């Protein structure tokens, strides 16, 4: 039986100053008393596409398709705080992306038909550029959480460089997920 790899395609966060600002916001979020599970800073990334379980052979095919995506390294501005599905019923707290979204959408829209050709069903949620910074576990203190999100809706985190598109492996553990890079595509500027 072939190994099953839980996987996704993403751009990693490679700016410590931005990660430090995200950590500071996570600490402020915790002070609302809401029932949150913050994302470990080392795990924060821009997900282009969650893939689910794949085989090593499929990982190779995905990597070949990733190398056909046309983009040059670009800058993405991380700005704003919000929640999915919305601030009244939050399940995920996110940091927004206000510049670089066209490039991110282009990468997604180039990948989607290539993944469909490999047998993946289209993502029903589509693509919404963001960074997940916390998951909401219950409705405890959700009004305080909503107030914080609304008050900080335009929070500025800084910019990141999106240089390498990566196929990531996700191993779920009792202490949270552990991500590692299986394959990457780093086009030359």
SSE map:
Layout lengths: L4 E8 L3 H15 L5 E3 L6 E10 L1 H11 L7 E11 L7 E8 L1 H17 L12 E7 L5 H10 L4 E7 L2 E9 L2 E10 L4
Antiparallel strand pairs: 1-3, 1-8, 2-6, 4-5, 4-7, 5-6, 8-9
The number of domains is 1
The termini sit apart by 41 Å
| Number of alpha- plus pi-helical segments | 4
Q: Given the helix and strand composition, which structural class is it?
A: alpha+beta
Q: Indicate the percent of residues in helices.
A: 25-40%
H/E element string?
EHEEHEEHEHEEE
What share of residues are in beta strands?
Answer: 35-45%
Shape: globular
Radius of gyration: 17 Å
Strand order of the largest sheet: 2-6-5-4-7
pLDDT averaged residue by residue: 95
How many extended strands?
A: 9
Largest sheet: 5 strands, antiparallel
Q: Tell me, what is the CATH class?
A: Alpha Beta
Proper CATH architecture: Alpha-Beta Complex
CATH superfamily membership, which one?
A: Cyclic phosphodiesterase
Low-confidence stretches: none
Question: Can you give a write-up of this model?
Answer:
This protein is α+β, with helices and mostly antiparallel strands. It has a single domain (5-175), classed as Alpha-Beta Complex (Cyclic Phosphodiesterase, Chain: A). The protein has 4 helices and 9 strands; from the N terminus they run βαββαββαβαβββ. It has helices at 16-30, 56-66, 101-117, 142-151; strands at 5-12, 36-38, 45-54, 74-84, 92-99, 130-136, 156-162, 165-173, 176-185. The strands form 2 sheets. Strands 2-6-5-4-7 form a 5-stranded antiparallel beta sheet, sandwiched between helices. Strand 4 (74-84) and strand 5 form a beta hairpin. The longest helix is centred in the middle third of the chain and has 17 residues, at 101-117. It is globular and about 45 Å long. The termini are far apart. The model has no long low-confidence stretch (mean pLDDT 95).
